[in-house]
Design goal:
By secondary structure, this protein is mainly alpha-helical. It is built from three helices and no strands.
Amino acid sequence: MKENNKKIIVYALIGIVVLLLLLLTLFPGMIYAIKDLGVVGNNIENKCIPANGYTEQEWREHMSHHPNIYKECLL
């Protein structure tokens, strides 16, 4: 009985990993969207200021890829 439980757990974990890899393959921008939501959610008043690790030009380029989030910064 314990052997069957271990197999079920292993198969469930493998299934979850495969599902996550499939989602990341089909929707690669999902990581950036989640990252941007964190920036917008935490720094609503400062979202036009470059995030850590970005230069001014890099941040402007990044914002241009997400005009729906940074529309007031791109004017």
